[in-house]
Amino acid sequence: MAALSWAAGLSLLLQGCVCSVVQTDRGCVKWTQRGDNVCCEACYPGHHLALDCGPRPKDLCIPCEPGTFSGKSKNYKCTSCTQCVGAQVYVKHCTATSDTQCGCKEGLTCGDRRCSFCVERCDKGQEPAEKRSCRTCPAGTFNDQSHQMCKPWSTKCPDPEQIIVATGDALSDITCANVSVGPVHNVKTPDPTEQSWPLVISVVTSVVLMAFGVIITISIIMAKKRKAGEEKPIPKTPIIRTPTDDDDDDDDPRTLIAVECSFHEAEQEQGSGSESSQQLIV
Question: For residues 154 and 157, what is the distance between their CA atoms, to the nearest angstrom?
């Protein structure tokens, strides 16, 4: 008796359930019991709703037409498959349960998650810009991945014991290195007198060399002058005599005849008067 009561209660519970799920390969996957009929809430993938309510769940949804697809939904018609056009290429063709997956030709990349259009693929150090083009990362930013937006350089090192040793560039962030603590060396202050000695020696050497050069120049000039004086020719003084009556060949008795006489013969000219007269008369 108790068993019959338990079975009756279970039957009433199943009939009064507002929601029931039946595993089948077609038709309605989720429905609600309404009297003698059931009302569909979702069709199996690859099907669309034909009737809202009916006696059998499998008759409420029918398969999608060719070229269309549908997920688990309550649509009255399936969605048309996406067509890959232009720079797009097919990655996966459309089925009754899933849409087409498009990609882009080499050198291009999808412009959005659905890959509804293709854009130029930006390399590292670049970022996507307007009009589906690329631009170099602005100053103070970098990009170490392909086709991503540039990120600003870090302002400090991740490790507090590190310091920035190099700024970043369009391809990389800042460079950090550990701080090396070395022994402290006292810097010796140079003596002013020790610093001035090299300068004094340099000045004195320059003055001596200049003086030596001037002396040599003057010596050469004086030597040239002495040599020019020794080579100067000794002038000869002409001696004038009066022509005698014996010079019949001369038409003019007043003609004077000049005889050149060297100064080197001065001693001979100081001889006897008769010898001088003989030398003067030609």
Answer: 7
